[in-house]
Design a protein that fits this description.
alpha+beta; 42% helix; four-stranded antiparallel sheet; 3 helices; 4 strands; homodimer
């Protein structure tokens, strides 16, 4: 999968099919809320397996019952690439 | 355990027995580095059980093979209390 940064138009098009994801600071981000802390941790572990499968590691932040997933592509100059939109689709398919 | 904010002197004393922890922005923080992403996730889950035991939930941030643990006491006006130093001791005892 390409490490080329996507254009703003390409990102907008991808986001139109990724409900809940936002493009903030050259990252794609979404925050999920769960029924308690341990469920948020379990979700983080599940997303971690997607990260490992792709060798593309989104940052994961757990605040009590919330999990924020934030992905950017270091090899694309810390911009959003197809690796991020692909990961975002996989995370949404897993958690929703 | 008291929700009273600790004084700066009390925090300094506590940190003298908490190697690696720093007092930053009214939080106690430490970052650990593991052998890979899944080990960092496993460590986050383990710390999560300590959070649940104490009903005091440190923020957990996973960046590839790093886990940052950051704890403050909302009921102490988002300052460091004995709940944070107690949790920091427990996390260090678990991870080190």
């Amino acid at each position: 999968m390409s490490d080329q940064p996507l254009t703003e138009a390409e990102i907008e098009l991808a986001l139109s099919e990724l409900p809940g994801w936002t493009h903030v600071g050259d990252k794609l981000e979404q925050t999920w809320t769960f029924d308690g802390h341990l469920r948020a941790l379990a979700a983080a572990s599940a997303v971690g397996f997607l990260n490992e499968q792709r060798n593309h590691h989104a940052d994961l932040t757990i605040n009590y019952n919330k999990l924020r997933v934030s992905t950017t592509t270091h090899s694309a100059g810390n911009k959003v690439s197809a690796k991020d939109t692909d990961l975002a689709r996989a995370v949404s398919a897993l958690l929703e």
